[in-house]
Write a structure and sequence with these properties.
Length: 124
Amino acid sequence: MEYNIRSAQVADVVEVSGRIAASEAMDLTRRLEAHLSADEVRALVLDLSRVDYMSSAGLGTVVWLGKRMREMKQGYAISGLRDRVAQVFKLSGLDRILPIYPDLAAAEAALEERASGGGASPGQ
């Protein structure tokens, strides 16, 4: 697994690629916690468009991040699920409670609308 965190206009974007199994999920959780603690917290998009496998531990990281962002009263969105990963979200029921968008542009647009008072993102 590789990841990169970059600042975009509306949110920080966490771009993840590869596989997110147990050890990768633990590493990603630690690094995200450090990012959220060290930087000024802002909305966050988890871009999973280059993730080809996600275990239940990876799903736990996604859920934890959503809960953490909600506690911080910041927007959160997930973008770009590939078919195999989307199926895992659907089987777990997370597709009905998490703010998932087809691509990064749609996720950023939803967070921008939320920030401007246009309403809450799905799952928020």
